[in-house]
Specification:
Two copies of one chain form a homodimer.
Chain A lengths: L13 E5 L5 H10 L5 E5 L11 H17 L4 E4 L2 H14 L4 E3 L1 H11 L4 E6 L1 H6 L1 H9 L4 E6 L2 H8 L5 H15 L5 E4 L8 H8 L4 E4 H15 L12 E5 L6 H9 L6 E3 L3
Parallel strand pairs in A: 1-2, 1-3, 2-9, 3-4, 5-6, 5-7, 7-8, 9-10
Helix pairs in contact in A: 1-10, 2-3, 4-6, 4-10, 8-9
Chain lengths: 273, 273
């Protein structure tokens, strides 16, 4: 592979992009699993959310995000947005030779490995659910699998506002999840990067017998495997550097980011795509 | 004024723009008050919402919307988005000689005329509330007025999903509005074009003694006055034509638009700004 011939390629950062905030749950998992990697995060906050927008628009925006990260000389790109993963990854992989990975395949693989009865639930944005991309990915991995899905539009705003454990979050979760939890599923994919923030409430509503798959966590594990295979792990001893770029003014980004990452962040810069 | 010299200027359409869907409540009021006017509506659905974005970004997007409507040869422009009205109207007025009116001033004037005790509430998006633009506009009109404001982030999604009268809407309204309704206000501005959809629930929570001002309705009345003053009313006998443009694929637009307008729409076309 051409890109492997570049000297010191392994020292380059990993590029991560999302429509805005949610991808930070994926970044968090990457920070934990790969503490020595330098990571560049791009949140397209001037155009968020992607989850309600059309396939064509999401592909266009994703290509612009990819190009920005390529200009920063990254060694790998993680599409930390379920909607962009559902619509755009195959297009992005044609543009560059470095590995591009979305959250869709790792999440689907984990669900197929986890389920015992082949009944899998999927919750996500309207875009992700309507795309049927999780369903198709899961069926490709296991022809016997049945997938039941549900869009949960309000979860994103609840997560961003920090309304994650109150009565409103619980009632909203009940409204969305009561039907799907009665389908006999034993596994459910959190198919939107905001949803891990609501994990406790979701679990409370659907019951402990249904195992939750966090696509972001699974993706971070997969990134580790790919970097190992390609001998691209950063071997530095010191902690990796984390830089954040956003397309809108970073006013509220710091505050919400702290909730999603569990730590304060600096190094946030506004860019135009 | 130069623009008045154009022949048959009064036959031209009124241009209305919004970040996406919410401005349809303003369009609806315009359709009712000015049934013979041709109206062109532009919803920037590829980049909605504006309410969570920065002043700079909202101004940039608003200028692009204005330019599109100018290319359609409109006789007047209505900024049917509270966030864009708060941030961008003075900039837009410098770009064109035709009248540009936002929802901010008509809403503020109506509140000042309505209040008996000079205590006015304002609810809106985070962008609108943080801009303090309603507060400043109200104080300019009445130095004795006190303004109490509250951002209600979740209301937009609730309105779009049609969750307007259920338990979740009521609890959410209680969470946001209990404090502000105890400030002694006798008037409250619905400072986001989505909020009229939740009028019943809002009124139930804050009580009938607090009068609600629908900025969209007030703006439609103001448009009528301006067109009369400038002798720009369309004198045609037939019903006006209504055309809709959106920046994203119009997939869900029809469905949500029907809820906001109370009628089915056709004539929806996608455009690039």
């Amino acid at each position: 592979m051409k890109s492997l011939q570049i000297k010191n390629l392994h020292k380059r950062p990993i590029g991560v992009f999302d429509s805005g905030i949610g991808g930070l749950t994926v970044a968090r998992a990457l920070f934990e699993i790969l503490p020595n990697e330098n990571i560049i995060y791009l949140g397209d906050t001037a155009r968020l959310p992607y989850g309600t927008k059309s396939k064509e628009t999401v592909i266009l925006y994703s290509i612009e995000c990819l190009k920005f990260l390529l200009s920063k000389k990254v060694k790998m790109i993680v599409v930390a947005c379920n909607t962009a993963s559902s619509f755009a990854v195959p297009f992005l992989q044609k543009i560059t030779k470095i590995p591009v990975i979305g959250v869709l395949i790792p999440g689907s693989e984990a669900a197929v490995n986890m389920t015992k009865n082949n009944k899998i639930g999927l919750i996500g944005t309207l875009g992700t659910v309507k795309s049927l991309s999780y369903k198709k990915a899961i069926i490709r991995l296991n022809k016997k699998a049945e997938v039941f899905s549900q869009a949960c539009s309000l979860f994103v705003q609840l997560a961003e506002d920090g309304w994650t454990d109150n009565k409103i979050a619980e009632l909203t979760a009940k409204e969305y999840l009561t039907d799907i939890s009665k389908k006999g599923i034993d596994t459910m994919i959190l198919g939107c990067t905001h949803y891990p923030i609501l994990k406790n409430t979701i679990s409370k509503v659907i019951g402990k017998n249904i195992k939750l798959i966090d696509s972001g966590e699974e993706t971070a594990k997969k990134v580790n495997i790919i970097l190992q295979e390609k001998k691209l792990l950063n071997t530095q001893k010191k902690k990796g550097e984390h830089r954040f770029f956003v397309t809108d003014f970073p006013n509220n980004f710091h505050q919400i980011a702290e909730r999603f990452l569990g730590k304060k962040i600096h190094n946030v810069k506004q860019v135009k795509l």
